[in-house]
Structure formats: C-alpha cells, structure tokens
C-alpha cells in the first residue's frame, strides 16, 4: 500500500508541547555507553547482498528489512517511479492478488513495511518467531520481493492513488515549502524532484518503466539486509537465504552525481491562503560518512538540533513566542543532503521571524558555540546514547543505515569516541567551510 | 486502523491546594503481579512500576487526571496551556532549567494532553531516575506561573493551533465534526481549545486550574525500564510523599444527551481533496453495561479496517476503487461515551456521496451477513501479535497502564484484553453493529474544498547583513 503521509487521524487527538523533530533524529542523535553496544554480525550472500544481523533474544519476534539503492534519486526523469515500483511489490506477486498477499501476512500477525525515499527503497516484515508464524511470513515476503507481477489493474489503481496524494500536498503549506526547498537547493540534481512525483511526471510512468526499474535496482548486489530478533545466527542465515537467493546478482547502482554547492542566495515565495507562513532557510548539507560529519552534527545540536536546549527555540519560541516548532538539522544522504532551519509563524510576523533566524545563523557561524553550550550538548549526546538503541525497531533502523551507507560495522562502538573528538575549533572550522549564510535558499509559503 | 491493544492509537497519538497531610503512616504495598507492581503513597499518589531489564534506560511518566474533557466552555484548551506552562519554572528551578538538566543528563522529555489526561515524561539512563522524580515533584506543587511567561507562551500555543488545525483542512473538518457529533459531552471541545477562548485566557485562569487539579492524590507515577520496583517506591516516597493533598471534587458524569436523527455538516475551506467523516455514538468500557460489547466493537473496527486485507481496503480502495484511503476507528478506553468513526478520502472524480453510500453499504453488510471466521481469525491474530510487538517499547507499556489508571480503569484489564477479544463471536460483532451503527446516532461531516490559487515567485536576494564570512 502506498502511504498517505499527509493524512493522519492521530494528530487530531492530542497536542504535545514539543515539536517533533523531523525524522532525522533516529539516525543522528546517538552516543554510546561502550559496554552496551550491540555487536553487529555481518556477512555477504552468494549473490552479493550485504547482511547485518543483531540477535535480540528478549522478545519472541523478528524484524527483517531489505534496503535497495532504489530511491527517487534513481527516477531519472520520471519522478515518482521509485515510489510506485516499491508500492506495487505487495500488490500482486507469484500469481497472488494484493488481497491474498495481505491476507497471508495478516493471518499470521505479520506486519509488512515498505517505503521509498530519496536514497533508499525498502521492504520488510515484523513477525513472531514461532515457526508457524515466521515461516509463512518469510515465504510471502520472499514472493513479494522476488516475484512481483506488477498486474496492470494494481498499476492503474496505485497510480491513481498517488495522483490524489500529490494533489493533496497542494493543500499543505508545509509540503509545498519542503518541495520548493529541495527543488531550489538541488537544482538539476536528482534529489531536487519530489519523491512521489508530480501530476505531470506520474502521467508518464508506464508499466514497462516500472518493470525495468525493478529489474535494474532490486538485485542482490544493490541490496542490504538488516535483521534483528530472536533467532540464532544459522537461522538468520537461512532466513536471508530464503529471502534473497532468488534475486539475480545484478549490479550495484552507479554513483549519483555530486551535489553542487549553491553559488548565490535565492528566495522562493509561494502565495498560499494559510494563517501561518511556513519558512525554510538552508543549503546543501553533508554526506553520510562525511569527514565533517561529527563536527557538523555536534555543531548543529546547540544551535537548532536539541529542542528546548537549542538557541533557535530559545530565541524564536521562548523569548519571542513566534513559533511552536522551530529547528535546524543536517539530513545526511548518499550525496550531500540538506542543512535547513525551518519554522512556521503567524503571517504578520514573517519578516521578524526571518530576520531573527538569519541573525542567529550568522552569529553562530561566525562565533560558534559557547563553551558551556558545547559541554551541555556533548553530555546530552553521549549520555543519551542508550535511548537510541533500546528497542529492536531502533536497532533495525541503525543497522540498515550503517549497511546501506557503507559505514563501518563498529560505527556504534566508536560513536562516543568520535563525538568526544569534536572540539570548538573543529566546529568553527567546519561551520566556516560548510555553512554559508550569504548563499542560502529561503522559501516562504503563506499569504502575500 | 491497525488492531492494537486496549489503549487505542487514536488517543495516544501525538504520539500529556488545600489540606496538608503528613506522610506519617508507612505506606502499605498493594498487590503486585509479574508485570506491574503498584504502591500507594500516604498522600494518595499512586506509583506503578514495570521492571524491564533489556536496556539500561528508564521511562518516567507522571499522569494527572485532567484534560480537555474536564473543561467547560469559555476556558477550552486550558489543560493544554497549563501543560506548556509546566515547563516555565518553579522557585527552585526557574524557567528552562528543567529541560536543561534533563538534556545535560542525556535525557529526552516531553508532555502530552488528551481528552482525559495530561502526562509528563522523561526517557533517560536508568541511574538518573531520581533526578526526574525530584523535578516532577517540585513542579507538581510549586509552579511559578508567571504572567510574563504566560503571555509569550499563549502565543506559542496559538501558533500550535494554527499549525495543527487552522491550516489543515482535514484536521479542521474533524474538529468541527466532533463539535457537532456530541451535543453536551465534553468531547465536543478540541483539546487545543478554540482560538476565541485562547484569546481571552488569563494567567489567573491557569493558576486556578493548576490549584484545582495538580496534587499527588490526583496523579499517578508510572516508571518502566531497568529499575528495581522497591527502589522506585522508596524514591517516590522520598520526593512525592511529603507533598500536600488537595480536595479533588468528583466530576459530574457528563453523559451525552440522546441524539434524534442523523446530523450533517459541511466544512468549506481552501483545499484540494474532499474528505468524509462519519461517526456513530458508541459506548466505552467505563460506560457500557455489557462488557463484551466494547470488545465486539473493537473486533468490528478490525473487520472493517484491521490491516490491508480488511474490508475497507479490499472493497473501497481496491474493489470499487472509489477511495484513496478509508479507515475505521474505535477506542474502548475513554472516560466518556465516544464515537465509532469511519472516514475516507475519495479518489479523483468520485463524488463524496458515492463514498458515503459505499461506507454505509459496508455497515449494512455487517448488519445482515455474519463476518466469516477467517476474517475474525485474522483480526485476532493481529491482536495477539501486537501484544508481543508492544514489548519492544517500554514507553508504550508505561503509557498503557498510565492511561488506563487515569481514565479510571484498573490497569489489570490490559492482561485480559487478548482473551476478551478472542472470545468475541461473529454474532456479537453483528449485534453491536445493529445496536450502535444506526442512522439515529450518526453524524456526517464533509470537507468541501474551496479553490486554492498558488503563485510561485523566485527571486535572487540580497543576503542578510553580515552574512558574508570575514
């Protein structure tokens, strides 16, 4: 099923004081108590898939996720292709209809998980480990992964649903702002296009495109398998074999083009009838595994990456009452991702908010963090590490990320050490080289 | 919806005086079981502990029996505003210090307000629990509630309302749907409050609200994680045990008045996609006479929307292909009568009436034909599995008992949930459909989009002053 991320009943029923910091947290805030680090076991399948496994024996359940370098960055000129291909896997496979597939998963309590983002496309399942549940769950996942039929009726239906989802984004000022921001920051790079396409690009996707995309990218050499749960190593090997041995070896996806840094400031203004103006200010960011990763990660923390402890929240929210949610973040990707500051404020206050955001950034890039700010951030990041690996689902996220981005398997073990190696000089040096307040993209969506 | 558990995801989503009594008596432990160990301080505060030694972390939650359903017209949103103000300091720990201390210790913290509760939590390394308890105990009775801070924070809350509701057509529709569906039930008011009420809320209102509801005898501490229960009890006694109690008056029952026929409303705002919400009045565990009925309603929601194989996906999204998405939701754990809700977004060029007709057909089909065993088995299999998956989150486990206790249900019923779901028969599902999903108890809201014009302008700009590196 293709998700409708813009529609969620959940958010209607509860209000929370704190903003949700956009989904980069799981992969960004971590630190480590060395003895508590889970040991990642790793191997390669005969056909070339990379496997990362962490046994977790406490709960009789298993999570397995197969990640492909098959995100929207591979769409070529057909934006939306990666998402649609991924979404169609479970909509018909091995001669079974989407209904049969859903019934088979759900009759054993298994939860299928699939998604496509800019870099990654993934599919996986959460299942109980008792074999009467696990065996069928793995079997059906294997069929979905290795024998999708891409039936024409499912293709038409899911394509139509995506078109509605794309249209729905046009009623969300935050989606409009985010899309405009990516478009402006990445210009002609594949990261510029909206992940789920445009009405125009969706109209061009053919079934042939989908099949070709699947054949090219859903191959073992292009796959990382992450597995966490209550199974022994030999069982994990059997499960992985069952899942991916039928995939052709294929080829690893070629390197993406390098992201070009911005050369001048740019401002995009979108007229929209909302009561708030949505603001993004930012630029290109950094890669996963970037030489400056730890310096920039720590640098962002006291600035806008630590909620109430951050300068942006203090200035924009606490001192001036201008926003409910304000933050900054680096979103590291295969190639340079983004650095962004984002917030929303009552339309009349737009200029005031924008001025403060820019002032804070300029000041921070120039002077860096105060000594005590840095110390507080260091202790938050290192002391908070156990929280980031305290569940199977978080571990799965981590090891899938580590495998996919070719980070070292002792990444978790060394994380604290790497964080501690950052000091104020490294931060100031990295900020000066990498963050350019005079060349920012500014996006404003609201009443003009 | 996904069939989950006793506390519905709808409620947990966000995914938060008087007489002095000395804690002179030695508290007596209440009965305990393997999962939850409970204790009561002499001032009436409850302490529930779930030991879980998987990772060296702990979740601490303080739950207060107050939320939007405790409010009255004119002060809507006050529970949530107070939740914001709880971060604005005490004499001992001035504004901002709470968060600073938790952050410096590697912790995460937040709070949430629901219809029936307000809760505050920290997630932190297990050796830092004491810190959390000390800080929570301090702000339970000693909040400063400074007017200057309030005047800034109320603006933050208004921004939050704009973000969550005003500028989100579906959320706005849902808010107005609730306001019409319930006649006199407090659930007709939005948790975040009406903007008109936020505009006139004053610090004195908030002070009064704090004084009325924030006391140990109106609170429950839930701690889950890598801790030893008796250590937690000792710390709880140390920090909360001396806090004075308040006289907490019992709420009036606030039972919803009878509805006479289908109620309809249309929300016309700038949007791109229509949306329909249909809600039928339905009992909850605290109000129902025959307990099995609420479990049957949960299974009914599962038959309609318990995963991608369930009827709404199978028939409306895939079969007829008229819905872009369709869902059914019902939660049996609430203080007051609630709604069994169907909602859907149409596919392109599908009239909203067609979608409403199809949703009603699904309801009628359950009323006239028994759901088959395989469908029920799938719903039940998912409930059984979800019970295991939930163990992956100590936060969820703490939330489950905290919420049940706060809405006035014994937390022990969580252990009977699976068994009660398993016992539901096809006939019972049909019976509750016939009894509750009737036109007399229905409210239908439709989002009818007005056009949006958006024009994009791209300009080069002069960088802000000082933007160039030296």
Tell me briefly what this model is:
The complex is a heterodimer of chains A (448) and B (470). By secondary structure, chain A is an alpha+beta fold.
Task: Describe this entry's structure for a reader.
The complex is a heterodimer of chains A (448) and B (470). Chain A is α+β, with helices and mostly antiparallel strands and 448 residues long. Chain A folds into 2 domains: 39-244, Metalloenzyme, LuxS/M16 peptidase-like (Cytochrome Bc1 Complex, Chain A, domain 1); 266-392 and 408-446, Metalloenzyme, LuxS/M16 peptidase-like (Cytochrome Bc1 Complex, Chain A, domain 1, 2-Layer Sandwich). Helices cover 42% and strands 18% of the residues of chain A. Chain A has 17 helices and 14 strands. Chain A has a 6-stranded mixed sheet with strand order 2-3-9-4-8-7, sandwiched between helices. A 5-stranded mixed sheet of chain A has the order 10-14-11-13-12, with helices on both faces. In chain A, strands 5-6 form a two-stranded antiparallel ribbon. In chain A, strand 2 (41-44) and strand 3 form a beta hairpin. The longest helix of chain A is centred in the middle third of the chain and has 18 residues, at 152-169. Chain A is globular, with a radius of gyration of 22 Å. The relative contact order of chain A is 0.17. The model of chain A is unreliable at 1-35 (pLDDT under 50). With 470 residues, chain B is of the alpha+beta class. In chain B, the strands form 2 sheets. In chain B, strands 1-2-6-3-5-4 form a 6-stranded mixed sheet, with helices on both faces. In chain B, a hairpin with a 4-residue loop joins strand 4 and strand 5. At the A-B interface, strand 1, helix 3, strand 8, helix 5 and helix 6 of A face helix 1, helix 2, helix 3, strand 4 and strand 5 of B. Strand 10 (266-271) of chain A pairs antiparallel with strand 12 (456-460) of chain B.
């Amino acid at each position: 099923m293709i998700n409708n991320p813009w529609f969620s009943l959940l958010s209607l029923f509860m209000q929370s004081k704190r903003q949700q910091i956009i989904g980069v947290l799981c992969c960004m805030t971590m630190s480590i108590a060395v003895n508590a680090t889970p040991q990642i076991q790793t191997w390669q399948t005969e056909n070339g898939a990379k496997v990362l496994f962490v046994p977790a024996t406490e709960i009789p359940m298993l999570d397995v996720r197969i990640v492909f370098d098959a995100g929207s960055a591979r769409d070529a000129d057909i934006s939306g292709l990666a998402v649609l291909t991924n979404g169609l896997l479970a909509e018909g496979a091995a001669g079974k209809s989407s209904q049969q597939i859903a019934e088979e998963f759900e009759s054993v309590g298994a939860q299928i998980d699939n998604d496509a983002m800019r870099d990654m496309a993934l599919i996986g399942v959460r299942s109980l480990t008792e074999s009467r549940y696990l065996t069928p769950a793995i079997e059906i996942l294997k069929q979905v992964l290795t024998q999708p039929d891409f039936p024409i009726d499912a293709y038409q239906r899911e394509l139509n649903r995506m078109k509605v989802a794309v249209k729905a984004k046009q009623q969300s000022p935050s989606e409009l702002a985010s899309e405009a921001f990516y478009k402006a920051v990445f210009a002609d790079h594949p990261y510029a296009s909206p992940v789920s396409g445009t009405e125009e690009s969706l109209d061009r996707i053919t079934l042939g495109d989908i099949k070709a995309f699947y054949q090219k990218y859903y191959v073992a050499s292009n796959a990382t398998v992450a597995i966490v749960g209550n199974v022994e190593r030999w069982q994990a090997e059997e499960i992985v074999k069952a899942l991916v041995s039928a995939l052709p070896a294929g080829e690893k996806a070629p390197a993406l083009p390098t992201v070009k840094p911005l050369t001048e400031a740019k401002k995009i203004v979108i007229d929209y009838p909302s009561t708030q103006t949505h603001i993004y200010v930012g630029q290109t960011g950094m890669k996963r595994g970037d030489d400056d990763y730890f310096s920039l990660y720590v640098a962002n923390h006291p600035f806008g990456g630590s909620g109430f402890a951050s300068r942006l929240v203090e200035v924009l929210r606490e001192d001036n009452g201008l926003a409910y949610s304000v933050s900054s973040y680096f979103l590291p990707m295969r190639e340079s991702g983004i650095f962004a500051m984002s917030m929303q404020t009552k339309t009349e206050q737009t200029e005031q908010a924008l001025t403060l955001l820019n002032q804070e950034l300029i000041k921070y890039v120039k002077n860096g963090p105060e000594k005590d700010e840095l110390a507080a951030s260091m202790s938050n990041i290192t002391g908070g590490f156990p929280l980031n690996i305290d569940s199977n689902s978080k571990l799965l996220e981590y090891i899938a990320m580590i495998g996919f981005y070719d980070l070292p398997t002792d990444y978790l073990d060394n994380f604290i050490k790497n964080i501690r190696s950052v000091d104020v000089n490294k931060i100031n040096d990295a900020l000066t080289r990498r963050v350019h307040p005079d060349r920012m993209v500014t996006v404003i969506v609201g009443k003009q | 919806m996904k069939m989950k558990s006793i506390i519905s995801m709808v409620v947990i989503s966000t995914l938060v005086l008087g007489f002095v009594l000395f804690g002179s008596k030695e508290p007596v432990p209440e009965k305990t079981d393997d999962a939850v160990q409970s204790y009561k301080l002499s001032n009436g505060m409850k302490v529930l502990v779930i030991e879980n030694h998987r990772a060296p972390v702990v979740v601490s939650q303080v739950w207060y029996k107050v939320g939007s359903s405790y409010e009255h017209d004119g002060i809507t949103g006050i529970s949530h505003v107070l939740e914001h103000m709880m971060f604005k300091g005490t004499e001992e720990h001035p504004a901002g210090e709470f968060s600073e201390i938790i952050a410096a210790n590697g912790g995460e913290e937040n709070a949430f307000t629901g219809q029936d509760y307000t809760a505050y939590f920290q997630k932190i390394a297990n050796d830092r629990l004491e810190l959390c308890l000390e800080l929570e105990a301090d702000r339970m009775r000693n909040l400063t509630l400074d007017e200057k801070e309030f005047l800034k924070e109320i603006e933050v809350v208004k921004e939050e309302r704009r973000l969550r509701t005003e500028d989100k057509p579906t959320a706005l529709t849902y808010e107005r749907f609730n306001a019409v569906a319930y006649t006199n039930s407090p659930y007709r008011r939005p948790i975040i409050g009406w903007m008109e009420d936020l505009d006139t809320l004053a610090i004195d209102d908030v002070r009064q609200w704090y004084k009325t509801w924030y006391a140990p005898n109106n609170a429950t501490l839930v701690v889950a994680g890598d801790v030893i229960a008796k250590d937690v009890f000792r710390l709880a006694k140390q920090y909360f045990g001396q806090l004075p109690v308040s006289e907490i008056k019992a709420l009036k029952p606030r039972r919803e008045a009878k509805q006479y026929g289908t109620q309809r409303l249309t929300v016309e705002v700038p949007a791109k996609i229509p949306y329909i919400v249909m809600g039928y009045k339905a009992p909850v565990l605290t109000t129902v006479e025959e307990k099995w009925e609420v479990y049957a309603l949960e299974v009914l929601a599962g038959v309609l929307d318990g995963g991608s194989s369930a009827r709404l996906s199978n028939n409306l999204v895939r079969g007829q292909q008229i819905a872009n998405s369709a869902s059914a939701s019902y939660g049996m754990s609430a203080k007051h009568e609630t709604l069994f809700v169907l909602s859907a977004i149409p596919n392109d060029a599908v009239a909203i009436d067609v979608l409403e007709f199809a949703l009603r057909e699904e309801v009628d089909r359950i009323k006239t034909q028994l759901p088959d065993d395989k469908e029920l088995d799938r719903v039940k299999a998912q409930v059984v599995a979800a019970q295991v998956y939930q163990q992956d989150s100590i936060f969820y486990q703490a939330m489950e008992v905290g919420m049940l206790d706060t809405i006035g249900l014994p937390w022990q019923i969580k252990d009977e949930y699976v068994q009660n779901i398993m016992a539901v028969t096809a006939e019972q599902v049909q019976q509750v459909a016939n009894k509750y999903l009737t036109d007399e108890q229905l409210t239908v809201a439709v989002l009818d989009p007005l056009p949006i014009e958006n024009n994009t302008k791209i300009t080069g700009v002069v960088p802000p002053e000082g933007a160039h590196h030296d």
